[in-house]
Design goal:
Blueprint: E1 6-8, E2 13-21, E3 28-36, E4 47-48, E5 60-68, E6 71-79, E7 89-97, E8 108-113, E9 119-124, E10 133-142, E11 145-155, H1 158-165, E12 228-229, E13 236-238, H2 239-242, E14 248-256, H3 265-268, E15 279-288, E16 293-296, E17 304-305, E18 312-314, E19 327-332, E20 339-350, E21 359-366, E22 372-375, E23 385-393, E24 399-408, H4 416-424
Parallel strand pairs: 12-22
Antiparallel strand pairs: 1-11, 2-6, 2-8, 3-4, 3-7, 5-6, 7-10, 8-9, 10-11, 13-24, 14-19, 14-21, 15-16, 15-20, 17-18, 18-19, 20-23, 21-22, 23-24
Length: 435
């Protein structure tokens, strides 16, 4: 589609892919969406992006990134049947991370029918230079039907400039306030005058004062745009330096189920189907400061505990992979002194024989500090267990998150859990278990 043109789209669930070619020196990019009434959002909740991945209506969801060779896509799922009647426009935007869009080759946006996979619209933007944010396209209502327009409007002020232009309140970076000068010592009061006998004043009736007005409602917290993306070249980050060493560390794994044969079939000589009953299990090996070791996982109902050792809790067992739910694990950082190391990993319980062609995304969100995220690289081996992230306590209180993204292939008769134990030297004894 040329810039400025439009085309009808089916009023159904649509998959919107922001795509580009990766390579040395190529910045990362992130897809986002804004739901507008009269050209503005109704509130910050109408902004869907990596830190706020699902709209309350369920109409728009950020599904995350996928890498296949040198091609990268970041995906939004837009269900036009669930768009609230008052919403007139859904803006489809992108922001760059670590450079400008002029450094990102092959930038495009593609709209597909989510169920059929057929392409409804595609816009290739070839005119980017110094922009750090783009409105690539938009869905809009016209006479009761939905259309897609190729926009191609750039911003040099990044995601913050784009978001504020549509009415989003963005959290400003916090700066240290100047230290106030010490107050001068108070002058001691003069000695009390000697008391004298005075007439006693009769008691007065209490004065009725008007009740104070209720305090104003607390305004909603502004949107935070900061994030940390771990890559092969920058695989670790300190939670301590990010200010994220207390409260809850929320670990989320989400994935996208595809009913197709895996891409590594040609290499291995046998196809592996990805079915809708795919079941991935998020797990964690832990070692506490007193030497205690164990595992948190759905297998054997070893869901852990949040307020007592091991201070790690698995919320449940999900089979959809939706970014708003997926598999979730919580770590209680208020007890960080008890942690020596935590290895977060994922196993395939059923539905596939490898992670190949699985679009999986990991997000670690501390209660305080910036979210940490990364995508799993393309799997080229018949792996059923993948080490995701290693969290270590240096002993001086510094908590470090290390991106692993390491696919392991269990030997015949060896469980995925035992395989990852061997790889990281946990030294535990394993017995068969069931959900």
């Amino acid at each position: 589609m040329p810039k400025g043109s439009n085309t009808p789209v089916p009023a159904t669930a649509l998959r919107v892919e922001l795509g580009w070619r990766s390579g040395p020196g190529v910045p990362d990019a992130d897809a986002s969406a804004l739901l507008l009434v009269g050209g503005k959002v109704r509130s910050d909740d109408d902004f869907v992006f990596y830190n706020q991945p699902a709209h309350a209506s369920g109409a728009v969801r950020h599904e995350g990134k996928r890498t296949a060779g040198n091609q990268v896509t970041d995906t939004l799922l837009v269900d036009l049947t669930r768009i609230e009647p008052g919403i007139e426009t859904v803006i489809l935007a992108a922001s760059s991370d670590g450079g400008t869009f002029g450094q990102i080759p092959g930038l495009y946006i593609e709209v597909k029918d989510a169920a059929q996979g057929t392409v409804a619209a595609r816009f290739d933007d070839t005119g980017a230079t110094t922009e750090t944010a783009f409105v690539l396209g938009e869905f809009y209502r016209r006479q009761g039907a939905w259309k897609f327009r190729a926009v191609g409007q750039g911003y040099s002020s990044g995601l913050e400039g784009l978001a504020t232009d549509y009415g989003i309140t963005v959290d400003e970076p916090q700066h240290a306030a100047p230290t106030p000068a010490p107050a001068a010592p108070a002058t001691p009061p003069p000695p009390a005058a000697p008391t004298m006998n005075r007439p006693v004043t009769p008691p007065q009736p209490p004065v009725t004062r008007p009740s104070a007005p209720p305090p104003p409602a607390t305004p909603p917290a502004p949107v935070r745009l900061t994030k940390v993306t771990l890559t092969k070249s920058a695989p670790s980050v300190s939670l301590t330096k990010q200010g994220g060493t207390s409260g809850t560390l929320h670990v989320n794994l989400n994935w996208q189920v595809r009913k197709q044969f895996s891409g590594w079939a040609a290499k291995l000589g046998r196809p592996v189907a990805m079915h809708s009953d795919l079941d991935l299990d998020l797990c964690a090996l832990y070692e506490l400061s007193d030497g205690t070791k164990g595992v948190v996982q759905a297998l054997g109902n070893a869901f852990g505990s949040f307020h007592q050792p091991p201070f790690i809790h698995l919320d449940g067992d999900d089979r959809t992979g939706a970014v708003a739910t997926g598999e979730n694990l919580r770590v209680n950082l208020d007890y960080k002194q008890y942690f020596r190391r935590i290895l977060v990993f994922v196993t395939i319980y059923e539905g596939a024989r490898s992670f190949a062609d699985l679009n999986a995304h990991v997000t670690l969100t501390p209660q305080h500090g910036a979210p940490i995220d990364f995508s799993l690289d393309e799997c080229t081996v018949p792996s059923t267990v993948c080490a995701l992230a290693l969290i270590t306590n240096s002993g001086s209180g510094d908590l470090v998150v290390q991106r692993e993204a390491r696919y392991l292939v269990p030997e015949r008769g060896v469980s995925p859990q035992r395989t990852i134990d061997y790889a990281y030297g946990w030294g535990m004894n394993w017995t068969p278990g069931r959900k």
